[in-house]
């Protein structure tokens, strides 16, 4: 499957692959949900394939894929039983060390192997430092593809040892086409909300459609434009979120509120921008805390609504 916006990345990869010396470290940088993982797997299969050596259609012995492990032993047991399980927040140093032990052997089928770390910017510090040693002295025939949703979180020493492939945000028009194809059940309102919240990430937009954000998006826009002196709109917003929204829906609501604020910045007078920037910063803070804090969902929705309602006054012209 060809993903929108991958053309330049493929061109750069194929030029390197056909060159005299392939670089051993690559960073795939871009928004979560733009298809970097799919690119990494397809690129890795091209890398390890050799003429005259049959390649398995499924899991490949010379492609190692590292991601978040189960959160604890209980979750690991659920995984082993084929049940849904929770992931740890970070990729652990033990995973990197186990990988390095495996890299002491030769590739199984050919002369090359690929290591995919997804996402590399979620490695704990000790894991990143351990990986750095392999990037400094890579085992023969080993190539690293590091997926990064936020490249700035990678160690500068890791970035300096890798080539970067950038995966751009997808335009709203292309996003709408993706949603029409992948989520045909979504209404126009739902697609608009998902596109606003996803900020150029088709994968995120598809996820947001599943979270039913259309009504929430409309209510957020109304709060920003009208204010909410009697708390009626915030009450409706809480109702649209539901009594027990999932963590994913809470995170999506924060992202959607950020998108609503960013959209307002494009049309307001310059003097009103500082208030918008302050509100956006508060929403960024909430987004950073939400994955690990146990927020009361109702209070979180009210805090989001109050931040948005506070912008209504800043939108009023100073001369009335």
From TrEMBL:
Source taxon at top rank: Bacteria
GO cellular component: DNA polymerase III complex
UniProt-listed SUPFAM superfamilies: P-loop containing nucleoside triphosphate hydrolases
Composition bias, Basic and acidic residues: 59-82
AAA+ ATPase domain: residues covered: 22-171
Annotated region described as Disordered, given as residue ranges: 50-82
A Gene Ontology BP annotation from the UniProt entry: DNA-templated DNA replication
Annotated InterPro entries: AAA+_ATPase, DNA_Rep/Repair_Clamp_Loader, P-loop_NTPase
SMART domains listed in its UniProt record: AAA (SM00382)
Protein name in the entry: DNA polymerase III subunit delta
Organism: Aurantiacibacter zhengii
